[in-house]
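Lecture 7 notes. Example A: sequence first, then its C-alpha cells.
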Amino acid sequence: IQPIEFERIPAEKLVERVRDDVLQSFPEKDRDSLLAMFSLLGFIDGPDSDWVEFMTVLGLSQRVAWVDEMGERIEVLDTASTTDSFTRLELVKEIADALARQHFSGARPPAQMHEDASRAKEGVRQGNKQIVAFRYARERNISPASRPPEELFSGLPDWGIVPPTVDFWHWLPWETGPFFVEACTGATKELSR
C-alpha cells in the first residue's frame, strides 16, 4: 500500500474527470436505449437529450473528489470544506476506493477482463466504499444521507437541475430498482406511454 496524496482541483477539472468517467462507464452503443428508458420513465425531457451531459450533471451533484486509477492520488474540489458532513463522508469513500484500487492494481486491467469479472471487481470496490462510509457515519454520529451544502458546487457550470427522482433512482439498491421501474411503467412491464 502506497501513501495517498491529496490535491485541490478547480471545478473545470472535476467536470472533465466526471465526464470522462461517464464516457467510459456508458458505452456509446447503450446510450440511446438508456436515454429512451429514462425518457419513458419521465426523468429526461425526451430522446433528443444528451445522455453524457445528463449523467455528468448527476455525477457532479454527488462528487467532491476523484481517485486516480492506481489509487495513489485523490483530487478534491477546491471549494470543498472538510468540516461539512457530506464532504467528510465523500472523502472517506474516496480513501476507501483508493485503498481498494491499490489492492487490486495487480489484477488484469478492466479492458482485458471478462465483463462479469470486471463488474464483480467494480461491485467490490463500490460496496466497500459504501460500507466504510456507513460505519464512519455511525461512529461519528452523522447521517449517512448527508446532502451537500448549497455553496459547495458554486464553481460548477449550471446545466439545470436533475430531477430529484433521478437522484433517488440512481441510489436504489439493485433489488429495489426493478420494482421502482415496474411502479412507473405499470403491470404490463412495457416502457411505453
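Example B, a different protein, same format:
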Amino acid sequence: IDPPPYSPAGSYYPTLRLTSRTRAEITLLKVVYFTLAADERLSIELMPKTLSIPLGNRYFEVILHNRGNINRQLVFQGWEPDRLLHYRLQPAAVQLAPGVETSLKLFINPRHWWQKIWRLRAQTIEFDLLVENLSNNNDYAPSLPHPLPIGAVNLKARRRWLFWLLLLSTATTAFLGLLALAWHMFVWRPSL
C-alpha cells in the first residue's frame, strides 16, 4: 500500500467490500488493519550563511520544510558562547503541518549599545541555531535534524574618523577650558 505523500501517521482501519460480478448477492466485507509509521524528516536552512553588520541585510532567513507526516511545533533560539549578540526571531515559535514550508526572520544586533558605536576592529562571531520541540506528549518527542545550521556574523569595524572626531572634540574642549581658566586667572580683573 502506497499512501499519498504527507499522510498523517497513525493507525487506519479501512473496510473492503468485494462484490461478485456474476452473483450480486455474494458480498465479502473485510477490515484491513495497517499503521503508517511516523516520518520525522525536517529540513532547516539558514540563508545567508554569513551576515555583515552594519552592512547588508539586517536579518537571516530560516527556511523550514516539514517533509515528514507528523505535525511539528518548534521553538527557535540563537546562541553563541560569548553572548555578544542579541537574537530576535519573528515568529519565535512555529507550527508546521506535514508538507508545509515556511520561513522565519532572525534579527541580530550587538547586545550592548557601545558595541554598535565603538567597534574599531572587525570581528566574526559564529552562532548556533537551537531548535526545541514543543510537545504536549511527554512520552514522544520527534527527532530534530542533525547537525543544526551554523551561521556567522561579521561585525564590521566602524570608521576611524569617528574615533578621531571624538578625540579631537575632547581635546578641543579641554584646550578651550584651559584657555578660559587661564584668562580668568591672569587676564580678567574684576572692576571695583
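Note on Example B: The first strand starts at residue 10 and ends at 12. The chain has two helices and 13 strands.
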